[in-house]
C-alpha cells in the first residue's frame, strides 16, 4: 500500500502522517516487506530451498508464506521475538511438525533439490540426514556410551566386529570408533573418555548438551538444527557450544534459533529475522543484518526497542 519505506533511513522529525513504521510493543506496523529484504544472494551450493511455506495450527497461521534458500556448510541464525514461528519453521526442515496433530504444512521444502514434502519420503532417513538438538539437554537416562551409540544402533550402522570380519566386510565402524568420533567432534571426549559407562545424567548441563550434540552427530547427519541450544547454559558452557557450532559449520549445515543477538552476530554467516505473525522480514548476510538492516522493524528489534 504505502511506498514510503523504500528509503531505509527514516527522518526523525517528520509529521505524524508519514510515521507508519513506528512499531507497537509487538512490532506491528504497516511496513511492507520488500522482496529485496529477503532475497539473499550467496555463493556456493544450496542445502535447503524453501518456497511459499505456510504452517497452520488449526486456524492459527504460524508461518506466513516464507521463501528462503539456506546455503550448505554454513551457519544460519533464526532470530525474532517469542511466538514468531522460529521453532515451527525449524521443525519444517525435518518434518518434525508431522508429529504435531494440529499442525498443517503447505508449500515446498527441498533438501539437495529433493522435495521432502512428498509421498514416499522415508522420515527416518530424513531425520538421520537432518538431526536436531533441543533447548534443554535431554540425554536418555543411560550411560554416556549408550546415548551416543543409540542412533547408530537403531539405524544398524554398527557392524558387529566378529560378524563383519567373518563376512569379510570391514566397511562399518565399530561402536567404539563411532562413539569416540562423535564425542571428539562434540568437544566432549577429553572430559568423558574414562567414564563412558557412567550415567549421562551425572554430567553438567553444558556437558549434557554437548552429549546431545554428539548423539546427533553419531548418525552422520548433513544438517544440524539447533533450537536455542545454549539458553539453559552458563557463559562458559555457552561459549563452548558457540565454538563448536563454528567448527561444525565446516562439515555440516547448521541452522540455529537463538534469542541472543550477540550470539547470532558472533556465530552465524547469515541471519533470518522473523517477526510477529510468522513473517520473514529480512534475511541476509549477518553483518549486513546487524549493521545495516533495511527494515525499520528489524532495526527496532535488533536495537531492543521491542520484543
Ligand atoms: N503445538 C502447537 N499447537 C498449537 N499452536 C502452536 C504449537 N506450537 C506453536 N504454536 C503457536 O505457533 C506460533 C509460533 O510458535 P513457535 O513455537 O514456532 O514460536 P517461537 O518463535 O519458537 O517462540 P519462542 O521464541 O518463544 O520459542 C505461536 O503462536 C504458538 O503459540
Ligand atoms: Mg521456539
TrEMBL record:
<feature type="domain" description="ABC transporter">
    <location>
        <begin position="48"/>
        <end position="302"/>
    </location>
</feature>
<dbReference type="Pfam" id="PF00005">
    <property type="entry name" value="ABC_tran"/>
</dbReference>
<protein>
    <submittedName>
        <fullName>Phosphate ABC transporter ATP-binding protein PstB</fullName>
    </submittedName>
</protein>
<keyword id="KW-0067">ATP-binding</keyword>
<keyword id="KW-0472">Membrane</keyword>
<feature type="region of interest" description="Disordered">
    <location>
        <begin position="1"/>
        <end position="34"/>
    </location>
</feature>
<feature type="compositionally biased region" description="Low complexity">
    <location>
        <begin position="16"/>
        <end position="27"/>
    </location>
</feature>
<keyword id="KW-1003">Cell membrane</keyword>
<dbReference type="InterPro" id="IPR005670">
    <property type="entry name" value="PstB-like"/>
</dbReference>
<keyword id="KW-0813">Transport</keyword>
<dbReference type="InterPro" id="IPR003439">
    <property type="entry name" value="ABC_transporter-like_ATP-bd"/>
</dbReference>
<dbReference type="GO" id="GO:0005524">
    <property type="term" value="F:ATP binding"/>
</dbReference>
<dbReference type="InterPro" id="IPR027417">
    <property type="entry name" value="P-loop_NTPase"/>
</dbReference>
<keyword id="KW-0547">Nucleotide-binding</keyword>
<dbReference type="InterPro" id="IPR003593">
    <property type="entry name" value="AAA+_ATPase"/>
</dbReference>
<dbReference type="InterPro" id="IPR017871">
    <property type="entry name" value="ABC_transporter-like_CS"/>
</dbReference>
